[in-house]
Amino acid sequence: MNRFQTEKNHSFHRLLLPALVFLCLMCFLFYGMSSVSSTTQKEEERSLKQAVIRSAVHCYAVEGSYPESLTYLEDHYGITYDHDKYLVTYEVIGSNLMPDIDVIPLNDGEVVP
Predict the structure, then answer these.
(1) Domain residues of the chain, as ranges?
(2) Global confidence as pTM
(3) Is 107 strand, coil or helix?
(4) One digit per residue, pLDDT tens: the chain, 113 residues?
C-alpha cells in the first residue's frame, strides 16, 4: 500500500518538468512570431518606398518632370497602399529634382514613435 501512495506524491513532480518545457517552448514560439512580424512590417515599408520612388522616376522618364503629388502617382501610375497603415510623405522640391519620399507606419491612425 505504501508503494501506491508514494507514486501519487511523485506524480506532481513528474508533471512539473513537462509543463515547464511546454511553457518555455510557447515563449520561444511567441518571441519568434513577433520577430517575424516586425521584420515583415519593415520590409513592407521599404517595399512601399521603393515602389513610390520607381513610379516617380518612371513618370520623370516618360513626362519629363516628377509628379507634383502622390495622388498623381496613385491615379496614373497604379500606386496603391493601405492609407490606414502607412502615411506616405511626398515633398516636391522642383519639377526636375527627385521629391523627398518618406513612409511612416501608423498605429490605429496615429504615428508610431
Answers:
(1) 2-111
(2) 0.69
(3) strand
(4) 556 555 555 667 778 888 888 899 998 888 888 778 888 889 999 999 999 999 999 999 999 999 999 999 999 999 999 999 999 999 998 889 999 999 999 886 555 55
